[in-house]
Design the sequence.
């Protein structure tokens, strides 16, 4: 198997595998976006997952075709962008942070912020900066208005527990580009 084949994005992979593979991938929405630097994995057997209690109107996208967006609302205010995936229904990868690369002026206007790190560090900020809305729920991430390209080379990935949840907090299902200044919260330990 070639290195390029190792880096492909296979949406039928378990969320824990795809979450790692998405690090370094390029994500844009209507030409605005950058490099994914932080993700979290969730599956239907995970008590922290929106799919844990089964299908509902809110989480229907998680039980639909893989490779699509599941846009969820947290705290009644902020949107989160997830990639539906897995060999079984109910899996998704939360995109927690990207490194802004294109459309930065649009991001600054949408966010009302200038510092590059403040634009997309955190799922709510990321959605606001990219212009993600509930209308993007169920939309394919492999066709316009989205572009999702695999990473071009293997990267050093930090692994740790997920954040912002109260259940299954010990699972090491949070992944990030090691040393990135654009993650939502730094990882403990050297080089992370």
Sequence:
């Amino acid at each position: 198997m070639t290195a390029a084949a190792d880096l492909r994005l296979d949406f039928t992979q378990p969320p824990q595998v795809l979450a790692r593979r998405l690090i370094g991938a390029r994500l844009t929405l209507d030409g605005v976006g950058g490099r994914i630097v932080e993700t979290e994995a969730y599956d239907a057997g995970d008590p922290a997952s929106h799919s844990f209690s089964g299908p509902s109107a809110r989480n229907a996208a998680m039980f639909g075709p893989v490779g699509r967006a599941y846009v969820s609302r947290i705290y009644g205010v902020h949107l989160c962008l997830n990639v539906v995936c897995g060999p079984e229904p109910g899996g998704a990868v939360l995109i927690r942070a990207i490194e802004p690369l294109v459309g930065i002026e649009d991001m600054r206007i949408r966010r009302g912020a200038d510092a590059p790190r403040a634009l997309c560090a955190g799922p709510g900020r990321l959605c606001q900066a990219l212009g993600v809305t509930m209308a993007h729920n169920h939309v394919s991430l492999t066709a316009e208005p989205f572009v999702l390209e695999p990473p071009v080379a293997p990267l050093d990935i930090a692994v740790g527990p997920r954040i912002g949840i109260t259940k299954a907090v010990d699972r090491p299902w949070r992944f990030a580009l090691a040393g990135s200044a654009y993650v939502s919260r730094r990882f403990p330990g050297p080089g992370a």
User: Anything to note?
Assistant: The two ends are 29 Å apart (CA to CA).
